[in-house]
## 1
Amino acid sequence: MSSWSLLTVFSLLATSAFAGIGPTATLNIANDDIAPDGLSRSSVLANGVFPAPLITANKGDAFSLTVADKLTDDSMDLVTSIHWHGLFQQNTAYADGVSGVTQCPIIPNNSFDYAFVAPGQAGTFWYYSHYHAQYCDGLRGALVIYDPQDPAASLYDVDDDSTVITLADWYHYTSKNAPAVPAPSSTLINGLGRYSGGPASDLAVVNVVKGTRYRFRLVSISCDTNFIFSIDGHKFSVIEVDSTNHHPLTIDSVQILAGQRYSLVMTADQDVGNYWIRAQPSNINATFDGGLNSAILRYKGATVADPTSTSSLSLQLNEQDLHPLTAVDYLSDKTVGGADVNLELDVSFNAGLFEVNGQSFEAPDVPVLLQILSGTPPASLLPTGSVQLLPKNATIEIAIPGGVLAGPHPVHLHGHTFSVVRSAGNSTYNYENPPIRDVVSIGTLATDRTTIRFRTDNAGPWFLHCHIDWHLTAGFAIVMAEDTPDIPNEDPTDAWNALCPAWNTYSASTGITQGGLKPIKAT
C-alpha cells in the first residue's frame, strides 16, 4: 500500500471515531498500529480508532458500556479499566473505573459491563483508561450527554458529532517505555497532526457554513500537555465548563489543561475561506510552521487549501471571570476556612516522586472500595496515609498551595464538581458566584493557593489526583473516602464481584500488580 493511501486510511480511522455510539455499546480494547501524525506505532485502541469512539446519550439515559479486554501487545499494559470522567456515579461507585480504588483491573480475554445512570447530568465529558499511564497509549475519547431542555439552546444552531473537538498530546514511545522526562512528539486535533521533521500528514478539518452558530465542545484528552486554543479571526462565547452551564463570556482563546472541557459558541461570521485552528502546546515545539499544532476551519465554498490566516489574540479566558448559571447551597459561609471541614493538601516532589501531605499514592492490592465493603475499619484503609475520611453532608474546603515543580498541575476530583473559590494566579476569594468545574489548575507560583469547596452528598471513595498521567503514576494522588458508613448500602454487580478473584489469579501467575510507582524527573 502506498504511503498516500496509508495516510488516507489513518485519516478515515480518526474521522470514524466521531460517529457517536451509546449509551449502550461494547468497547473492544485491542492493540493496533496507527499513524495519527504520520509515524506508525502500536497503540491501545477502543474499537480500532483514535480517539476512542464518541459516546453520546440524552439526559436521563441509562448507560451500559461493556469493556472487552483483547490486548495482546506486552510492550504496553495488558489489563485495563475505564473511568467516565465527570459522571458522579451516585450509588454506583463500583462503576467509576479506577484500578486500585474502585475496582480490580479487567484482565485479557475478559469483559466488564459498566452499568450506571447519571441523573440530572448533561454536558461534555470524556472517558479513558485509569490503569497506570495506559491512556497515553491511546485509550481516550469524548462523551457527551445532550440536554433536550438545554438553557443555552437559543445561542447556537449546530451541536452534534461534528462539533466535538479533542486535543491530545501524542508519543512515539509506549507509556511503559517512557523516559524519566516524558515529552510528547506531536499535538493531535481530532486525532490528526504532524510532528517536527515528519511528513505533511493530513490535518483535521472542521467544516462550517457562513452565518451559522456552532457549539464546539472542546475536550482536552491530553496526557500531560496544556494548550492555548484559538481559531484565527473568530471569537467564542463560553457557555459550559467541565459539564456545568455558565453565563456566556466572550473570549478569543483559552488555556485548557488535561481533563478540562469547554463549550465554545462560535459564529461563522468571517469571509468564506480557510482559517487555522491552533492548539499551542506547553511542552513541545510551540510553532505552527508547516501545520504543527494545527487543524483547519473550512467554510463551505472555500477552496481545499491550507489557510494563510494569522493569529491576533487579546481576550484569553480568565477562570475567575466565569460564573455558573445555577447557584449552589454550600457557599453560605463566605469566609476563608469557613467550611465544616477545611483541609490543606501540601504537594511536594522528592526523589522522583510526588507526595501529597508527605505520602506518595501507590494503588493497594485490594481496591479501597472492596476494603470498605469487606468491613475494614475506616482508620485502617490502605494505602496508609493516602486515604482522607470525609463526613456525610458536610461542606468541604480544600486549599492546595502552588509552586510545585512541573506545573501547572490540573487536579481532578472524582464523584463531584466543586466551586473554585480561589483560582491560580489570583489572590482574592469569591464565595458569591465562583466557577464550577471538576479539574482545576493549582498554578505555578509559590504564592498560588487554589481553593475549592463542595458538599459531601455522594458516598464513595473518590480519587483526587493530578491529571498529568506521568505525575499520577509518580504518586500525585489521594483518596477522599466520603461517608464510609453508607458505602456498604451500594450493591455491586456480580460481574464486579468477579473482577478481583480473576485479577488475583492473573496477578499471581504473571507477577503484575496494581501498584508500582514510576519516578520521573520534574523541571
Note: The chain has three domains: 3-151, 186-321, 341-510.
## 2
Amino acid sequence: MSALPAKIAGVNEVIMVTPPQVDGINPAVLAAAKIAGVDAIYQVGGAQAIAALAYGTESIPAVDKIIGPGNIFVATAKKQVFGRVAIDMVAGPSEIGILADDSADPRQLAADLLSQAEHDRRARPILITDSADLAQAVSDNVTSQLKVLPREAIATDAVNEKGFIAVVAKVEEMFDLMNTVAPEHLEVQLKNPTQYLNLIKNAGSVFLGRYASEPLGDYVAGPNHILPTSGTARFSSPLGVYDFVKRTSFIQYTKDALAKEAPAITTLARVEGLEGHARAIESRFDTYYD
C-alpha cells in the first residue's frame, strides 16, 4: 500500500520498518516487500521506529517522508516529528461505518463491524440505520459472533467502548450523521446504494452493496487502503501517487514584461511597508536610487 505508489511516483529509495519477531521477519512480509520494490528493511516498530526514521541512527538513515498507519503510539509519534519530515496522515485506529436498511443481512453487518473491531481496542465500529428491527438483530449477531473470534477481548472492548448503533427516521438522516463521523471505511448496504452517491461527502473509502465487504478493500480491491481516520476524511484523501510528488514554481520574465508589472509590484510593496521589495524591482530600471 505504501511502496507501490512511491515507486510509481519515482521515489529513488523506499525503506520499510517492521516490528521484530522472535524468529525474525514474517516471510510473507519479506515476499510482499520484494514484490513491491522495497530497497531496505529494518526490524524496528512502534514510536521508536518513527523516531529512527525521522532523525536517523547509526544504522537507519533519516528519511524525507514517513508513510503508513499504526497504533495510537505510532500516530502520536508521527504528529511529533511532522515538520522535521513529511507524513502522509495521522492514520489509525481503524474505523468502519455502515449505512443499512431492512434489505441488509444482519449477520453480514455484524461480521463486517467485527472485522474492524478486532484490529484494536480503540477501533470504532458504527452502524446507522432507519430500521429498529435491523439494529436489534445486528446487536444480537455482534454478541454471538464475538464469542468465536480469536481476538474476542480486543473486539469486545472496541464494541463496548467505541462502537454504537444509531436508528434514524430516514435515509437522508443516515448520510447526514455519517458525514459528520467521516469514517475511514464506509459501507453502504441499501437497496440501491448507487442511488445515494451524491449524499456521500466524507469517507476514506466507500464500499457499495452487500458483496463489497470491507476486507475486500484491505487485500485485493485495488484502491489504496491507507486511509484518513478520526474524522479527518473531512479534509484528507486516501494515500496515492500524488502523496509522493512535490511541485516547484519556475518564473522567468523579460525586461519588457517586468516593466508592465513593475508599477503594481512597487505599489503593493510600499503599501505593505516593504521598501526593499519595491527597490529590488526598481533596480532593474532607471527609477532605482542609491
Note: The chain is about 40% helix and 15% strand.
## 3
Amino acid sequence: MNPCIVPTIPLDDDNEWKIQHKRYVAEAKAQNPDIILIGASIIQLIQCYPIWNDKFVPLNSLNFGICGDRTQDVLWRVQNGILDHITPKVCILNVGSNNIDNTPVQISEGILAIVREIRSKLPDCYIIIIVRTLYLNLKS
C-alpha cells in the first residue's frame, strides 16, 4: 500500500497540528473564501511576505498551509473539514516536498488522491497544482 494515499494525522506531541487544523476549519466556515491555498510550509509561509496582504487578502483568500505536512496529512485535512461549507473558485495546492521517504510515483499518486478529493467536494473549483521537482528522480 502506498503510504502517500492513506489519510494520516501526523504524530503531534503538543497537539499543535490538530489545533491549527481546527482553526482552519473555523476560518473556512466564517469566511467562505474565493481562493484557498493548501499544502505545507511553502504555502503556509506565503503569509509572511507582502504579496499575501497585497495580492491574496484582497481576493478573499485563506491559507491552509501547515509546515511539515506530507501528502497523506493534507489528504486527511481535505477529508476532514477544511473544504466543508465553502465554495472557493480557486484552490492552489503545493504538497509533496516533505515526503522524503517516498518515491516520485508514490508522491504523485498522493497528490492525485488529494486532487480527486478536492474535486469530489468542490466540483466547480479550479485547481492549480504547484509542483516542486527539486528531488524528482526521473529514473524511478
Note: The first helix runs from residue 16 to 31.
## 4
Amino acid sequence: MRIHKEGTGSISLSVCIFIAVNSLLFLCLPSSWWILQYAILLMTLVGMSLVVYFFRIPSRVLAEDDNLILAPCDGKVVVIEEVEPDEYFMEKRLQISVFMSVLNVHVNRNPITGEVVYSQYHPGKHLVAWHPKSSLLNERHTVVLKHKNGQEVLAKQIAGALAKRIVNYLHVGGVATQSEELGFIKFGSRVDLLLPIDTVVNVKLGDCVQSGITPLAKWK
C-alpha cells in the first residue's frame, strides 16, 4: 500500500494539527488532568490516522480487457437505469452509478481504453451524493472516452456533501488507458457512467465493486 499524491497537503495539515493541539495540552494543562490529555491525544491520533487511511492506494492486480467496462471507483452500485442525458449525448444511455463512502479508496480509474474526446468541469452545489439531483446540481467533472470500436463512455465524477475538490487528470486529445488513474475525489462522493443502451450489465444494485478490477458491463 502507498499514499496518493493528492493526500500530501491534507496529511501534512493533520500532522501539524495533531502536534500543535497535543503540545499545547501537555504544556498548559496540569498533570492532574492526564485523563483528558490522553483522551484528546487518542482522538487526534485516530483523526490523523483516518486522513492517512483515506488517501491510501492498496496493492492490486488491475484488470485490462477491451471487451469489458470496469468500475471507475470503489464503492456500492446505487443506480442502474436508462436515462436521458443532460450533457454531451442526445440519445438515451444506460447509467451505472457507484457511491463511495468516506472509508472507500477514492482513486478513480479509467473504465475503458480510448481517446479523450470531451472534458468539462462544472462548479455546483454539495448535496449528499445519493441525492437524485446530485448528478445535475453538484460540482462535477465529465469526460467522454471513445473506444476503438467507436462506442463512447461518459464518466462523471460528482462531489458530495463532504467532497470539496475533484481532480481529473485527462485532457481532450489524449489517450486514456483502462485501469490507469482518471482522477481523485476528496472525502466521499460518486461516479456515474453513461454507456450505450445495449451494453450488457454484469452487476446489480447493492453490489460492492473495486476500481480497475470489477467488470460493470461488457460490450454487446
Note: The chain has two domains: 2-57, 68-218.
